[in-house]
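Format notes (please read before filing issues)

Several people have asked whether sequences and structure tokens are stored in separate files. They are not. Every record keeps both together, in the order shown below: the sequence lines, then the token lines. Line labels are part of the format and must not be stripped during preprocessing.
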Amino acid sequence: MKKLFPVLTVVFALLTGCAKTMQLDDPNLYDQYLTKSYNQPVGTCFNAVKGAFAEKKVALTKEDAENGRIVTERHDALVYATYTGYRTGNVTNYSGGMGKITHRYYIDVKGDEKSCTIKVTKYKAWNNENEATYVKVDDIYNYYWGPLFKSFENHFNPDEE
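Then the structure lines:
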């Protein structure tokens, strides 16, 4: 009888699983989780988005201040490994693999001299080369989207400590 036991598992589960999931083409996803308004001038918000990605060393493939549009390159979100073993009699066999999660953001920054709204209008993610069609909302928000918006906020006044 084969007995399966995990030796080491570091698995990225943000793109699959049984928690609350939403389709990446669902407009409610972007309205509920990827839109925030601030009491900052639109130019400050635009520069904060640029600064946050520059700090993460993520290149922008589009940067249109006039229309408030920023698009990032496809960049690494996570590199993961899986490693499991099973025992047959006195023999233990191991198997494993590696993978990479990449993603890309399409962002609009709109507003005026008193306030702005930063909205991710499209989010694309890939597990290796397989494009995701849905996400585990709470996990990806906690690990990526929430910290991303916090990073934007931290760049509103980059010279202040």
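For reference, the curators noted about this record: The beta strands are 3-10, 21-23, 35-38, 60-64, 69-72, 75-88, 91-111, 116-127, 130-131, 134-136. The chain has three helices and ten strands.
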